[in-house]
UniProtKB/TrEMBL annotation:
It is found in: Secreted. Residues 77-118 form the TNFR-Cys domain. This is TNF receptor superfamily member 6b. PROSITE patterns: TNFR_NGFR_2. The gene is TNFRSF6B. CDD domains: TNFRSF6B. Keywords: Apoptosis, Disulfide bond, Glycoprotein, Repeat, Secreted, Signal. It holds the Pfam family TNFR_c6. Residues 1-32 form the signal peptide. The keyword ATP-binding does not apply. GO terms for cellular component: extracellular region.
């Protein structure tokens, strides 16, 4: 004789095994009974020792009292925090034993007809039984398809004309700003890592401008942008940064550091130099370019910003 009572500790079976088993048994019983509608099961009356055919109980209920020769099965509603998902002849409802983890949230609460179900919280996706954080797209790439509870973020390299300056799991590549349309001139073309840099500095040369005079600030800003966001190799960027930062900073930067990080550092260093001593930026910068052996860039800076 087979029975589906649950006694003692829960069986060490995967959670899907029991419902599947119940379903198989239910289908078998229905076929054997040859009836459409209510499912049945064989039951031996304890008093009369007689074999009976009892009705099963529908989902959300359990067998409170098996049928007798003259009374049908009594089904009882599952108590709170318990459920039965299928037609059954269980003597008690199953406990809602699914507990949502720290990185999960309730997708379906525990109800009389089904167990609690969890899904990964926003910002996480399910992988190999764990909820992992959606990966950010690094600078130069943008979100192509945002992560879902079941899938990681999908990134794409920013196509020409667009950029992404930050590491983010939500930001798409943004189009470069259009300097002409803004009434400005293009100082540095945009890359996949940074926006186009515009300037209103047109009244070159810087050399004839009084430090702090009208237009000087904007033109100094333009020089800084121009140098820091030049399209040059990390090696050259690093060389320039090391010359500008002085010997005390030599150990702080490794060549492994990303180019975008290095550009920001260089930009910050040049900004600091400008703020430290009004009007001294250009002379220091040109000296540093020579020392860092970047004659091509030195020439461009002179031509653009220092011409007499
Ligand atoms: C920028 O704007 C100008 C004028 O509005 C337009 O002619 C030009 O095509 C734009 N450039 C880009 C790259 O969108």
């Amino acid at each position: 004789m087979w029975t589906l009572e649950r006694r003692g500790p829960p069986p060490l079976t995967p959670p899907w095994a029991l419902p599947t088993l119940l379903l198989a048994l239910a289908a078998h019983t229905a076929a054997a009974a040859g009836t459409a509608g209510a499912l049945t099961y064989p039951w031996r009356d304890a008093e009369t020792r007689e074999w009976l055919v009892c009705n099963q109980c529908p989902p959300g209920t359990f067998v409170q009292r098996p049928c007798r020769r003259d009374t049908p099965t009594t089904c009882g509603a599952c108590p709170p925090r318990h459920y039965t998902q299928f037609w059954n002849y269980l003597e008690r409802c199953r406990y809602c034993n699914v507990i949502c983890g720290e990185r999960e949230e309730e997708a379906r609460p525990c109800e009389a007809t089904h167990n609690r179900a969890c899904r990964c919280r926003p910002g996480f996706f399910a992988h190999a039984g764990f909820c992992l954080e959606h990966a950010p797209c690094p600078p130069g790439t943008g979100v192509a398809v945002p992560g879902t509870p079941s899938q990681n973020t999908q990134c794409q390299p920013c196509p020409p004309g667009t950029f992404s300056a930050s590491s983010s799991s939500s930001e798409k590549c943004q189009p470069h700003r259009n300097c002409t349309a803004l009434g400005l001139s293009l100082n540095v073309p945009g890359s996949s890592f940074h926006d186009a840099l515009c300037t209103s500095c047109t009244s070159f040369p810087l050399s004839t401008m009084a430090p702090g005079g009208p237009g000087a600030e904007e033109c100094e800003r333009a020089v800084i942008d121009f140098v820091a966001f030049q399209d040059m190799s990390s090696k050259r960027l690093l060389r320039l940064w090391q010359v500008l930062a002085g010997p005390e900073a030599q150990g702080l930067v490794t060549p492994r550091e990303g180019r975008a990080d290095l550009q920001l550092k260089l930009w910050q260093r040049l900004t600091d130099l400008r703020d430290a001593q009004a009007g001294a930026l250009m002379a220091q910068l040109l000296r540093a370019l020579r020392e860092a052996r970047l004659p091509g860039l030195e020439r461009s800076v002179r031509t653009r910003f220092w011409a007499h």
